[in-house]
Structures are given as C-alpha cells and as structure tokens.
Specification:
This protein is mainly β. It has no helices and 5 strands.
Length: 106
Amino acid sequence: QGKDYGAYVQDLVELTPQIKLQLGMRADRFFNRADEVGEATARGQQSTFSPRVGLVWQPLERTSFFADWSRSHAPNVGHSGSNVTYDAEVAEQFEIGVKQDLIKDR
C-alpha cells in the first residue's frame, strides 16, 4: 500500500523580446508500506526534486530555436529480503530543436 504526493510549478520568463527562459520544479514524496510474511512490516519513503530548464530564441516572428533539460524520478519503493529500500530511478532528458510556424497564427 502506498501514497504519493506531488507539486509542480513552472514559469516562462521573457528576458528580451526574442529570448525566453523556462524554469520548472516538481517535488514528490512517496510512502510505501508492505506487510511481509510473519509479523514484519516494511516501510519506505522517498522525496525527490525534478528540475526543468529551457531556453527559447525567436529571431523571427515564426521561427524559434530551443534547448531544454529536465530530470525526472520514478519511485522505487520495493524492499529486499533484508528490508533495505532502494533509491528512486533517475532519468535526464536533453532536447534541442527548431520550430517553424508554416501557417500564420496556427
């Protein structure tokens, strides 16, 4: 049996008319309780923070270049036979690209 709580905040900040900065943060708290054979009860909890940072450069009205980095977590609330808990799995994503609006205002 487990419970998960999470909160996320993100904002897009215009540094100049052509440059925008995107910042985000997610906080998670995971709780787990597992009844083992006999009277033993395994309990585990984890807290994780997942940041996100992105940058957009828009040199032309319909052309944007962007770069983005983020980190995410997946809880690992299982237990071993020795009642040891394991750290959450961590993933990182990097993305770069170009966006071209082919049809104006769409």
